[in-house]
Amino acid sequence: MNIDHTTINTLRELKNAGYTPKTIKDELRDNLRDKLKKGEITFEGIWGYEDSVIPELERAILSRHNINLLGLRGQAKTRLARMMVNLLDEYIPYVEGSEINDDPLKPISRYARELIAEKGDDTPLSWLHRSDRFFEKLATPDVTVADLIGDVDPIKAANLRLSYADDRVIHFGMIPRANRCIFVINELPDLQARIQVSLFNILQEGDIQIRGFKLRLPLDLQFVFTANPEDYTNRGSIVTPLKDRIGSQILTHYPEDIETARKITEQEIQVDSRQTDAIYVPDLAKDLLEQISFEARESDYVDAKSGVSARTSITAYENLLSTAEHRSLQSGSDRTTVRLSDFMGVIPSITGKIELVYEGEQEGADAVAIILLEDAIKSLFETYFPRIDKLQRKDAETPYDEVIHWFFEGEGFELSDEGPDEDYRKALDSVPPLEALVNKYQPDTAKEDRYFLKEFILWGLVANNKLSKHRFTDGYQFKDLYGSYISKL
Fold it and tell me: If we measure between CA atoms, which residue out of 28, 323, 38, 330 comes closest to residue 182?
């Protein structure tokens, strides 16, 4: 029901406007029904969940359920919860001065009931915008029942000269103050079991118990919980009776393809416009960045139970742009293109985001990050150029023979990390077989992408053990595998 909140300030005016009370779950349900009928997007900006998580979440809302979003880190669980605010009415009325947002026609607090009894239809009203109807609490071991539910306030008792037997001495906690709102508890398994127990009555019976006071407060809340499956074994669990009171448990997941992952990254990155204006990022570089996360989720060095957050690609993209920008500023260039060697700059954003198993710890975080990059190059290489088989006949011809022969005959060449773009292009142009491979297998490649693709060929041949790559102070040297050894004999 659309009511002009700017013209209604008393209970009488609200009644005359035809207002009828509605629970928050019915409010969400009705607004979701309207959006679905109109074919509108309900959770805009959430990619990869269109056929999985979002339909399940919509069904849970239609069922008026409290919801548990279960998934690994970086799977947009909190984002989904926050976006449920968009399904609320723009404004709702409440009794002015109420701590718990009392509905004027269905007051539940002693304060609101006494005020209405005193002033009747002249009771003053205030209006609550939907942006103020979202409460969030991160479950940590130090959270107490007093924080969530409430406690007796001795200062209030002294100021008002009240006995501790009077329920007006109660100071309400976060949950009662979130009445008629969405309340999110993140990382629910981290909440101590005894604190989880305190939620039972609120979820089911609608009353709260504080220091011996049993108050019949039928709170009107939409609960959303988030949890990580890893937490069930590492730090705690959701107690069974609480799970029983949560209507729907919805499993989230990571993007299933690079295209979806790229949409998420490009939407979430926070970059300076001067970076995007001055730095060109080839499509292959964007795909490669996402492929690193896909490789990490399958790697034997990475703890799969911890997951690899979507934030890995987001921060890696930001670092990639900053690496190219740093190089451009030092060389005095106004514009530049991302190089594959710039990916060395994303290693710090990878090592801080992945949890390693024992074998990974033995390798070292930096080494694992480089392995993931090389695995990503190897995986994408086959989508651009002919596959390199591990086992080949000794005299079998391959499309890469000319490149390998060029390195066998020469002494290799070096690519500097910080060198100007002219020197970078000149170095790659000095290897004619690279141009021939690009022309033959990727003839439609845009001009600005061709040099990245040439460097990609070199790294791909290294990843497939056809060339060797050695790090020197400020760059890389590419050589054949055996020629330099043979020449010394």
Answer: 28
> Which residue has 């998420």 as its token pair?
264
Per the CB < 8 A criterion, the answer to whether 116 and 104 are in contact is yes
| Contacts by 154-159, CB closer than 8 A, 24 or more apart | none
Confidence (pLDDT) at 55: 97
Give the model confidence (pLDDT) of 305-325 as tens digits.
888 999 999 999 999 999 999
Q: Does the model's pTM come out above 0.85?
A: yes
Segment 238-262, tens digit of pLDDT: 888 899 999 999 999 999 999 999 9
**What does 190-244 look like in DSSP terms, one character per residue?**
GS-HHHHHTTHHHHTT--EEETTEEE-----EEEEEEE-TTHHHHT----HHHHH
Q: Can you tell me the distance from the alpha carbon of 294 to that of 348, in angstroms, rounded to the nearest whole number? A: 17
Contacts 24+ apart (CB under 8 A), 238-243: 238/68, 238/188, 238/189, 238/196, 239/193, 239/196, 239/197, 241/197, 241/200, 242/196, 242/197, 242/199, 242/200, 242/203, 243/68
pLDDT in tens, 273-307: 888 899 999 999 999 999 999 999 999 999 988 88
Amino acid identity for residue 423 in this structure: D
How far apart are alpha carbons 5 and 14 in whole angstroms? 9
Q: Residues 257, 47: contact at Cβ < 8 Å?
A: no
Residues whose CB falls within 8 Å of the CB of residue 436, separated by 6 or more in sequence, listed in order? 402
Whether the Cβ atoms of residue 217 and residue 176 lie closer than 8 Å to each other: yes
- If pLDDT is split at 50, 70 and 90, which confidence band does 204 have? confident
Say if CB 454 and CB 391 are below 8 A apart. Answer: no
Angle at 113 between CA 112 and CA 119, to 5 degrees: 85
CB 451 within 8 A of CB 428: yes
